[in-house]
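TL;DR need C-alpha cells for one chain.
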Amino acid sequence: MKDSSVRLGLIFTIFVLFIGVSISPSIIGNVEKIANPSIDNFSINSYTENFGLLAYWSFDEGSGNLAYDYSGHGYHGTINGTSWTTGYTNYALDFDGETSNVNLDLYSKNLGFNKTDDYKISAWIKSESTESGIIYMMSYSMPNFAFPIFYIKFSSDGTLQMKMQSSDSCGLILNSTNSYNDGLWHYIVGIYYGNTVNPTMELYVDNELVGRDSDWLCPMISIQFKKAKIGMATYASEFFNGIIDEVKVFKIPEEPPNAPTITGPDSGKAGDNIEYKFNAVDPNGDQVKYIINWGDNNTETTALNPSGIDVTVTHTWSEKGNYTVKVHAQDVNGLNGPEATTTITMPKNRVIIWNSLLMKILEYFPFLEKILNQYYN
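>> reply
TL;DR here they are.
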C-alpha cells in the first residue's frame, strides 16, 4: 500500500509539472511560434484584424526625396541621405548609419497614439551592422526631458528592442533573444495593446513572437508626440545601417464620443444655480470635454475628463422662459460626437408671483382695494 501511494504521488507530481510547463506564459525574449499569415494581412489574432491602415511607405518611388504615404492620409516623409536600392518588393531605401533618415515630424501627432489605443507597425529590414540603429521612432522632443517615447531599434549585437515610455517611472521594454544582423530579409511586427488595464507590447520577427511585456502605464495622448523618424532616433543619433522596406502603421480607427447623457431638472427658478451632469463614452477610451450651449446666448466648454465619468456643471438663467440646452462631447483628438438636448423651463419671476398673490388677497378683502385706491389716487 505504501509503495502504491508513493507511485501515485510521483505520477501526480510529474503530471502537474508537465501541465505547468505546457501552459506557462511567455516572458521577454522567449520565442513562441504562431501560424504564418500572409504578409499584407498579418494578424496575431482576430482582434488585430480590426486595425485600420494609418500609414504605408512602400519606398517604391525609386528616385526623389519624398517617401509617399499610400494609405491615403498624405503623411509623406522627407528622405535625407539615403540611396535607392533593390527592396524586398521593388525598391527600398538604403540607410548609411551616419545621416540617413526619413523625416515624418510634420505628422507626428497623427502617427502617435493614446495610452488606450491599439497600435501596430510592420517593416522589412536587412542589415549586417554591428551598430545600434533606430528602425522607427516617435517622441515628444528629446529623451530625458519629456515623454512619451516609442521605438523599435536594431541593437549593436543584432537583437531587436521595442520600447514604450510614457513618463520617468512608467514604461514597457522588451528584447529579442536572437540576432538578425545576418544580411537576410526579416519581417518585423511590433504591437501595442493599450485598451486594457495593463497595456501590453509584443514583438514578432518572421511571424514568431520574440518578446512580450505588460505593465501599468501613466497617461499619454497622441498629440504629445512631436517628432517621428524612420532610420534614426528623433534626437539625431542611432542611425540605422541597412535596408528598410514596406513600412506600415496600423491603428484602431479613431471614433468620436457617443452622445452625452444629461441628468438634471426640467424646471427651475430664474436667478438660481442649477446643476446638470453630463456623461459621454468614447469608443477608444479617450478623454472627453463637453461643449455646452445653455440656450441663453451663453456657451461653456469643460476641461478634459475620463470617458464615461459624470461631469457636473452649474448654470444660472437670469430671465423667465423655456431654454433648450445643447451639448456634445469632443475627444482629445478633436473629434466631435453627436449632440444631445434637454429643455428647462424658468417659471414666472418672483415679482409676477407676488402680484398674483396680491390679487387673490384683494379678492377676499375688497376693502383693502378701496384703501389702496385712495392711497394711490
